[in-house]
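Annotated sample (chain length 570).
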Amino acid sequence: MASIDDQIQEMKATAERLDIDIVEIITEAKSAKAPGRGGFNKVLSLIHDGKADGILCWKLNRLARNPVDGGQISWMLQQGLIKHIQTYGREYRPSDNVIVMAVELGMANQYVKDLSVDTKRGLRSKARRGWYPISNLPTGYKHNTGYEMGSDEVVQDPERFHIIKEMWNRFLTGNYSVAEIYEMAKNELGLKNKNGRMYSKATLYNLLNSEFYAGYYYWSDQDGEKERIQGKHVPMISEADFQKGQILLGKRSKPTRIIKYDHPYRGIMSCGECGCGITMEHKLQVRCTDCKHKFSSKNRTDCPKCELDISEMKNPPIIDKVYARCTKKKGPCSQKYIEVSILEDQIREQLSGIEIPATFHLWAKNVFEAMHEEETDTQKQIISQSSKRETELVEMSKNYYRMFASNKINQEQMDEFVKEVDDELSLIRKNQEQTHTRIIDWFETAKNYLNFADNAVKKFNETDDIKIKENILRAFGSNQVLRDKKLVITLPRAYELIKQGYVAISHDSKWLEPKKTLISKGLSGESMKQIQTGLPLLDEFRTLNWNKIQQDLEFSGILSFYPNLSLQNL
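Output written by the structure step:
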């Protein structure tokens, strides 16, 4: 699209060429998608007053992109009030077919509608990708103007990020009011906006109310419903710090200041007394600095005893904990609350119970590979023999049909012979399928258990992602019972065999060959001898009911141990 100056120059040349007298040049940068433009109304006023009788414009869609303005132009042209509309490449007169003009104005209106829909769709897509799609991001962040595919679309503002973070850090101590933080930012920290002026106090309150600094924002979905989205930008503070900040703001905080918690481990454990499920409960309390009364800050911002507002307290103690408890859906239950942090310590302790050294993990995996190769060779021979027998039976069946066709056997004999062949064929094919399934299933699933035992503790301790921790706990064992603040987990037999196998063989100092030898040459005869004599538990591990274990494995969530990764890659 040509610039406004270019449009004016071209239309002046057109007026000179067509001998048109220009009464006034009116420019307007406001969008034509909605009625109410001052410049457009002035054009119509000049025509109604008889000071002009036509319009020069770049294109018809410069005049109107909404049905109201378009209708006025079309009606005035039909009535002869507008005697001539001249665009860069076309003219419109009262005697022309109105359909052409109506179609062009309709296309302009549809263009605006489509553009609006496409823009909103694009913004929703960007929001779901984790990048906040607003033009003016919260202070301390900015859009990446040098964006390249795969890079961050929202980055830290080098001029203001560290200042805003320092403001948050000081405010979260509870020793400073918002007014004091404002003065510090103004005089000490040197916070300025893009125009070189200090932000207003209202802006500072909005800043301290923005969950964007904790890594989240809200955006409307296709139905207009607000959804909370975790952004990919680098958070300035944690969710817990943001929650504490909302408490410290007291009455100046927004009514919706309490963030939603994704409570961990809900629905995995059961109560050891009544059998109900174990749920999680978040307690957020403040101890008044004046009367020392402790109260919940979820639904109020002042002390119910002395009515002192939290924002007026100096560094009030904040208790922010999540507890596990019985749902008591079946009636009264005497089981007490337990802090989730203590519960996680118990989970770590039990995970440590199946932990195996990396050296044993490597050795056991090589043992299984040797077993699997030997078993595979044997099974291949069995399959080859059964395939040969299958071919023989198929040929026998054909011969019976030939004999029947040449009247060498009767119908009764034919049916008897064919039934015998079909029964044997059915049995052979069933055995082939079971053999093939066994070759694949037990080895891959066994490796999954070995990998889990080798990595579970480390991954549980390293990650802060609640979903990953939940998947690890689900994969760990079934029948997880919480009683008297103690978590008891019934381990699958496979884990017990892995641990018992390690204990049994670890007493022999010669059990492990050099790593390089294991990798390059596989297991030696001595290692295979150890399987027969020193480690019968591994052989029992191999002969478990792996079809049943595979089902339990998938149900428990072990195969979704990590998002977008298979467990085999751990």
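Annotation: The two ends are 55 Å apart (CA to CA).
Annotation: Confidence is low (pLDDT under 50) at residues 254-259, 509-536, 545-570.
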